[in-house]
Structures are given as C-alpha cells and as structure tokens.
Amino acid sequence: MIKVGIIGATGYAGAEIARLLHFHPQAQVVWYGSRSYIDEKFGSVYGNFFKLVDAKCMDDNMEELAEQVDVIFTATPQGLCASLVNENVLNKVKVIDLSADFRLKDVSVYEKWYKIEHKAPQYIDEAVYGLCEINRDSIKNARIIANPGCYTTCSILTAYPLVKEGLIDTDTLIIDALSGVSGAGRGAKVANLYCEVNESAKPYGVAVHRHTPEIEEQLSYAAGRGVLLNFTPHLVPMNRGILATEYASLVKKDGKLPSAQDIRAAYEKYYGKEKFIRLLDDGVYPETRWVEGSNFVDLGFKIDERTGRIIMMGTIDNLVKGAAGQAVQNMNILFGLDESMGLDLVPCFP
C-alpha cells in the first residue's frame, strides 16, 4: 500500500486528490496537510468526507512527512514546494508538485511570469513535466514531477499531434480557453464572488497569463523550434471544466493542404491507444459536461476549407485531468501501477 501525504489538502485540487485516492486500491492518505485548518477534522472542512475521513488536518512539515509516506503531493501556491523540497526529502519520497515551481526549465522565465524568486533552481533540470501521455517514460524514474497546469494540459494535448507532425503553422496558433471558477482556487476573492461571476463571461490575463510560457515551452519541444502564440483565458459561470478552442493555418505538403483524414490519422497516431483521450466522431465537438468529474480529455476538430485553417477543440475537468487526476495518474506511473487505477470514473451528468 502506497502511503500518501497531501500538503494543501484543503484547497480544491488537494481535496480532489483526497477524493480520488479514497477508493484507490493501492494508496492510502495518511497526512492531510493544511496551514489554515490545523487540528480541524478534514471531514468538517469538506462535508462530503463526513464519516468517510476522521483524520485531522496537519501542518506542512515536509521533513517530518517524508519520514511517514512514500509520495507527497503539494497542491499549494507557487513557491511553497520549492521552499520546502531538499535532498533529504527527495532521497526518501517522490514529490508530485501541482504548482508551477518546476514546470518551466528557464528560472528567469519562471521568475518573470510568477513574480517570485525561485527557491530551489537546482532541481529544475531534474524535474519531469508530468504530462502523462507525452512523457510517461521519463516519469517512471523521476524524483520530482511537475504536474502540468489545467489550461496547459488541455491546450497542449489539443494541438500536440498536429504540431509534432508539422501539419499546422505554429506561428499562426491562437488559443482561446474557457474555465470554470474552481480554477481560481478556494481563496476568497471579490472577483470570484457569486454576483461577480454569475450571468457573465470575461477574458482575463490577456496577453500576460502565466500559463502562456508553459504552453509555448512544451509545444516548442514538439515542434523542434521555438513556438510563440496568443493565449487568452476566459472565466465562465460554472464550477468545473475547461474548453480550449485553438486556431492555426494548415501547412501544405506536396502542394496540398492536409485532409480531415490526415488530421484524424495524426491524432490516432499519438492518442489511439490512450485510455484517457477520446477523439470524437466527425461533426461532434467537445463539451465540458461530458468530462465533468473524470480524467478524460475529449478532442474534436474542423477544417475550414475557405480559410485554409483548422479549428482544434479540447475539453477537460480542470480539477481532475487538469490537476488531481493527472497527479494520481503520475503516481500510478511512478509506482508501476496500472495508469488508470483509481481513475476509472464515468463523467458525472447532469
């Protein structure tokens, strides 16, 4: 049985990890870490765990935690994991970090976009970007997993096969993405109050959203050259879900633009055997309601013959595949378990 500690267990992503692991046949949460609720019962902070979890919330002492568990999930704001992790910890446990502390390989880019000093740059090169469907072979032997962001998971997976195969011109790539309010976390913010969000939709972080360099970096690896793109996130009045709609010009090969069959073949090449990626039928497009509460990524596309461009669409549950589900998937890979263990979840509807 894998012993698990969660630092940041009372945030939305941390609580989702706890939910997914509650019935995981090979894992047991033994430490619910939370600075805000120390000594309070986890089941009183989240009523859905009432009479399911009797444990009290503990602190974020990573040194002590490393003596008791096999893997630590850090579902915390940027900067905390980097300030706590050290060689003593990494020699004892695996660390799966849900913040951005180890996602970007250039520390100056991290510090520019996140406006904080990186406290553990010595581990940046070692950390593996935990996008499971792309990097699973590197994940298997890692000590630190940088769990990808929610927007980035959806945005990268939606475009990756076409970028990798050179079917789109990445210089023309534009990504619009919609997110439910849980993506902003559980902290009290005026902009996220019910009356501020309900019956409204708004763009935010326009041209400056900090997931932008993460998307660019990962797609640059796929393209084999630098990728610069426009990414615009939007907040919409729903609890969960991300829908990314991406646009790019198709690249001619032998004087012809790729056909729908060529595009589908590229997706099938990379995702045909992936349990959690569902390529939808022609004319069917992703909807957030069909992935809610699950670890699935639903993908669709449409070629616009008139403009020579393609519209790529992807959707995920931001708290599952975009955070906790992917973290559990990474844990399964790290410990040699079936990748879908604990994640065989039928999406919830309605």
Quaternary structure annotation: single chain
Residue runs with pLDDT of under 50 for 5 or more positions: none
How are the strands of the biggest sheet laid out side by side? 8-9-7-10-13-12-11
Query: Could you say what the CATH architecture of the largest domain is?
Result: 2-Layer Sandwich
Explain briefly what this protein structure is.
By secondary structure, this protein is an alpha/beta fold.
Structure explained in plain terms:
With 350 residues, the chain is of the alpha/beta class. It folds into two domains: 2-126, 3-Layer(aba) Sandwich (Rossmann fold), CATH 3.40.50.720; 151-318, 2-Layer Sandwich (Dihydrodipicolinate Reductase, domain 2). It is built from twelve helices and 13 strands. The chain has helices at 12-22, 42-45, 62-66, 80-84, 87-90, 107-114, 132-139, 150-164, 194-197, 212-223, 260-271, 320-334; strands at 2-7, 27-33, 71-74, 94-97, 128-129, 144-146, 168-179, 202-203, 230-235, 242-250, 277-279, 297-304, 309-316. The radius of gyration is 20 Å and the shape is globular. 47% of the residues are buried.
